[in-house]
Design goal:
- The complex is a heterodimer.
- Chain A is an alpha/beta fold.
- Helix content of chain A is 33%, strand content 16%.
- Chain A starts with 6 loop residues before the first strand and ends in an 8-residue tail after the last helix.
- Chain B is an alpha/beta fold.
- A five-stranded parallel beta sheet of chain B has the order 5-4-3-6-7. In chain B, strands 17-16-15-18-19 form a five-stranded parallel beta sheet.
- Helix content of chain B is 31%, strand content 16%.
- The chains are: A alpha/beta, B alpha/beta.
Chain lengths: 203, 483
C-alpha cells in the first residue's frame, strides 16, 4: 500500500525535451522483471549509457552530480508518450522523483503516475517558459509542491496553483488506493452483473 | 422527445457504467481482459498480497508474446529473465484459473492478433489489456484501450475500472486509396498531421468511405496506432464487413445467439446528428505510401517526399527535429527514398496478420532480398503462421532469402533477442520508431508491408508503386493493384 503524500521541497531537474516516451524513461529490455526491483537503475538508461555500456560524457541529466537526490522534474510537452508500461512511473519513483511539471502528459502515463503517487503537474505554455527561465537563472532553487494546497511555491514568495484529478488527489493524500474504493462498491458491481450477462466466455 | 443522438463511443460508454458518484471517476464494467507476460506479474502479486481472486476468469484470457523467442520452439530459452517471466504467466494463469494460450498452443500469438482471430473481440464490448496497442480491437466497434499494471490488478480483482470520460474525435477519411497505398499509410499520415500528442484525452472514431472500404485486418492496422497519435482508443463502427469476419469464429456467438448479437451490433453506429468534440477530414485520394524519418511516429513523410528542413517546422520543434536526425544519422531536407537499410522487419500487432503476409509475399515472390540485408518475417500468431504456410507464403519468403519465424512481438519491442544492432537501419512494419525501441542504438523507418517488402528487394527505402508484383503472380492481382 502506498504511503500518504502531502508535500515535498526539492531542487529541480530540468529536461528541456518534448515527447519523452516511456521507451526512453524505461527501455523495454528492463521489462523482463516479475517484480519492481532495481528499476531506479533502468531510468533513462540509454540516455545515460552508450550501447556498449559506458557512461556518457557529459553525463545525462539525472547523472549530473548536482542533480542527485532531486525530486522534481521540469520537462517538455507530452511527457510519457507511447507504451503503457507502469515500469516508467515505477522507475521514476524508485529514483526519487515525486512530481513532474510539463505542459501535458500522455493519457496512460498520467493515470499510471497518479496510481503511484507521482504528481503530473500541468502548467500553461507561458508558465512553463517562465519556470524554465527561472531555473536557468537559479538552477539550485528549491520548489515546494504542496498537494494539499495544490500549489507550487517558488523562491522569493512566488507560487502558482495547479489542478489535479480530485479523486486521485484524495487517494494520494490519504495513502489509499483505488482497489479498496471499488471493492467497497461490490454491491453495485454485483447488481450490474446480474442484469448484464457476460458478452463472452473465454474458457 | 427524441433522444439526443449519440456517438458509437457514447453508446458503449453509457452501456457499461456500473456506478458514477459525483467527484469520482465512473466505475466502468469490462467485458474482456487480455493478459500477457510482461505487464501482469506484479498485478498477480498484488492480488495474492490482498488475498483476492480473479473475479471473472471466464472474461479473461492470457497469452505469451512479448518476451517469447521466435526461433525454433524446441530450443530452450537462453534468456533467464524471459524464461522466468514466461514460466510466471503460466503459473499465474493456472493458479487463478485463467485460460492461457501459451508456448506450444496452436492458438498462441500476439494478444491483439489472437483476440480478433478467436472471435473474442466483438462489437460493443469494453476491452482492456496492459498494452497500449489494445486500441487495435476498436476496429470491431469495441471500446478498447491500454492500461497500466495497477489497472490490470483492478480489472482482475473487480472486472471494472475507474475512468474519467474521454472526449470524442472524429477522423473522416474520404475517397478511395490509390494502388499501393494502404491502412498503414492512412494512420501514419494522420499521426504526421496531428502529432503524437494530438489525440491526447480523446477517443478517435474513424469514418468515411476510405475507412468503410477497408477489410477488418486493415481496420485493425488503423486503430492499432491510435495511441501513436496520443488517443487511448480508436473505433470503427461495425458493419457487414465486421459481421462477416466474426461469423463462425470460435468464441463468437453461434446460431440464435448470433442473430441476436448482430441485431444489437447494428444499433451501435453513431446516430445521425451525433456531435464530436473535434473533427478532421483526410483526403484518402491524395494519400501516398508513408515512411517515418525520425524518432517518433509523427515524424513521417510520403515516400516520394523529403525529410523536413529545420525551417519547415515550428521554432519550438526544431530542437526535437535536430536531435531526431542526429540519432537517425539523416540530413534535414534530403529525400527519404533511397536510404540504405541493414534489416527489414515484417510483423507485429500492427502488420502481422495474414493479409500483411500476403502483401509482403506478393512483392517478394520470385525475387531475392538485397545482398547483406537481414529480413525477418514474423507472423502475428500461430494461426497466421499455419495459414501462411498452407498458402505457401513461407516458401516465398525463404526462397527470397528472408527468415520465417514463430509468432510473437519480436523486433517491434526487441525483448526476445530479435533486435537491431547499434547504428543499424531497419525498415519495420511495426508501430514505434522511438530511440532504442528496436534495439539499443537501432534506427527505425516505419512503413507498410508493401513498402517494407519492396525495400527488402532493393536494400534501400523504396516506393512500392515502382515495383510490380513478383513473378508467378500473373493469375492473381498484386497487392499493389488490388488496393
Amino acid at each position: 500500500m502506498p504511503e500518504p503524500f502531502v508535500s515535498t521541497t526539492s531542487r529541480v531537474i530540468s529536461i528541456p525535451r518534448a515527447n519523452i516516451d516511456t521507451d526512453q524513461i524505461c527501455p523495454a529490455r528492463f521489462l523482463k522483471i516479475t517484480d519492481k526491483a532495481n528499476l531506479a537503475d533502468a531510468l533513462f538508461f540509454d540516455w545515460r549509457f552508450t550501447p556498449d555500456g559506458t557512461r556518457r560524457e557529459p553525463p545525462s541529466f539525472i547523472d549530473e552530480p548536482h542533480n542527485a537526490g532531486r525530486q522534481i522534474l521540469l520537462v517538455g510537452d507530452n511527457f510519457g508518450a507511447g507504451s503503457s508500461r507502469e515500469h516508467a512511473p515505477w522507475a521514476l519513483r524508485a529514483w526519487g522523483i515525486r512530481a513532474i511539471v510539463s505542459t501535458s502528459f500522455a493519457d496512460i502515463f498520467r493515470g499510471n503516475a497518479l496510481k503511484n503517487a507521482l504528481l503530473p503537474i500541468v502548467v500553461s505554455t507561458e508558465r512553463h517558459a517562465a519556470l524554465t527561465s527561472l531555473l536557468a537563472a537559479n538552477p539550485d532553487a528549491e520548489w515546494t509542491v504542496d498537494l494539499d494546497a495544490q500549489t507550487v511555491s517558488l523562491p522569493g514568495g512566488d507560487s502558482f496553483a495547479f489542478e489535479l484529478d480530485p479523486f486521485a488527489r484524495t487517494m494520494i493524500l490519504a495513502g489509499t488506493d483505488e482497489i479498496g474504493y471499488v471493492l467497497g462498491k461490490l454491491g453495485a458491481i454485483e447488481a450490474w452483473e446480474a442484469s448484464h450477462p457476460a458478452r463472452v466466455e473465454t474458457r | 422527445m427524441a433522444e439526443k443522438p449519440r456517438t458509437l463511443f457514447e453508446k458503449i460508454w453509457d452501456a457499461h457504467i456500473v456506478a458514477s458518484e459525483p467527484g469520482a471517476p465512473a466505475i466502468l464494467a469490462i467485458d474482456l481482459h487480455l493478459v500477457h507476460e510482461v505487464t501482469s506479474p506484479q498485478a498477480f502479486t498484488g492480488l495474492r498480497e490482498r488475498g483476492l481472486k480473479v473475479r471473472k476468469p471466464g472474461q479473461t484470457v492470457a497469452t505469451a508474446d512479448h518476451s517469447i523467442p521466435t526461433t525454433d520452439p524446441s530450443i530452450p530459452i537462453a534468456d533467464e529473465l524471459a524464461r522466468k517471466q514466461l514460466a510466471q504467466i503460466e503459473a499465474n494463469c493456472r493458479e487463478f484459473g485463467i485460460p492461457f494460450h501459451g508456448k506450444g498452443s496452436p492458438t498462441r500469438g500476439i494478444v491483439h492478433v489472437i483476440g480478433p482471430e478467436l472471435g473474442l473481440t466483438q462489437p460493443g464490448m469494453t476491452i482492456v489489456c496492459g498494452d497500449s496497442h489494445t486500441a487495435t480491437h476498436g476496429a470491431f466497434g469495441a471500446l478498447a484501450f491500454g492500461i497500466g499494471t495497477s489497472e490490470i490488478e483492478m480489472v482482475l480483482a473487480t472486472q471494472t475500472l475507474l475512468q474519467r470520460r474521454p472526449k470524442t474525435f472524429r477522423v473522416e477519411v474520404t475517397g478511395r486509396l490509390q494502388p499501393g497505398v494502404g491502412a498503414k499509410d492512412i494512420i501514419l499520415a494522420l499521426i504526421a498531421r496531428i502529432g503524437i500528442g494530438g489525440g491526447t484525452g480523446h477517443v478517435i472514431e474513424y469514418t468515411g468511405d476510405a475507412i468503410r472500404a477497408l477489410s477488418m485486418e486493415e481496420r485493425m492496422t488503423v486503430c492499432n496506432m491510435s495511441i501513436e497519435g496520443g488517443a487511448r482508443a480508436g473505433l470503427i463502427a461495425p458493419d457487414e464487413t465486421t459481421f462477416a469476419y466474426l461469423k463462425g469464429r470460435k468464441f463468437a456467438p453461434h446460431s440464435a445467439a448470433w442473430d441476436e448479437a448482430v441485431a444489437g451490433w447494428r444499433a451501435l453506429p453513431s446516430d445521425e446528428g451525433a456531435t464530436y468534440d473535434r473533427t478532421i477530414v483526410i483526403d484518402g485520394d491524395k494519400l501516398e505510401p508513408m515512411v517515418t524519418y525520425g524518432t517518433n511516429p509523427g515524424m513521417g513523410v510520403p515516400v516520394t517526399g523529403r525529410i523536413p528542413a529545420l525551417t519547415d517546422v515550428e521554432p519550438g520543434a526544431r530542437d526535437d527535429l535536430e536531435r531526431a536526425l542526429a540519432y537517425m544519422g539523416l540530413e534535414a531536407g534530403s529525400s527519404i527514398a533511397g536510404r540504405k537499410l541493414d534489416v527489414v522487419f515484417i510483423g507485429s500487432c500492427t502488420n502481422g496478420r495474414i493479409e500483411d503476409m500476403r502483401a509482403a509475399a506478393s512483392v517478394l515472390r520470385g525475387r531475392h532480398v538485397a545482398d547483406g540485408l537481414r529480413v525477418l518475417v514474423v507472423p502475428g500468431s500461430q494461426q497466421v503462421k499455419r495459414q501462411a504456410e498452407s498458402e505457401g507464403l513461407d516458401e516465398v519468403f525463404r526462397a527470397a532469402g528472408a527468415e520465417w519465424r514463430e509468432s510473437g512481438c519480436s523486433m517491434c519491442i526487441a525483448m526476445n533477442g530479435d533486435q537491431l544492432e547499434p547504428g543499424e537501419y531497419g525498415i519495420s512494419t511495426s508501430n514505434r520508431n522511438f530511440q532504442g525501441r528496436q534495439g539499443k542504438g537501432g534506427r527505425t523507418f516505419l512503413a507498410s508491408p508493401l513498402t517494407a517488402a519492396a525495400s527488402a528487394v532493393t536494400g534501400v527505402v523504396t516506393d512500392p508503386r515502382t515495383m510490380a508484383a513478383g513473378s508467378g503472380t500473373a493469375s492473381q492481382p498484386s497487392a499493389v493493384e488490388a488496393h
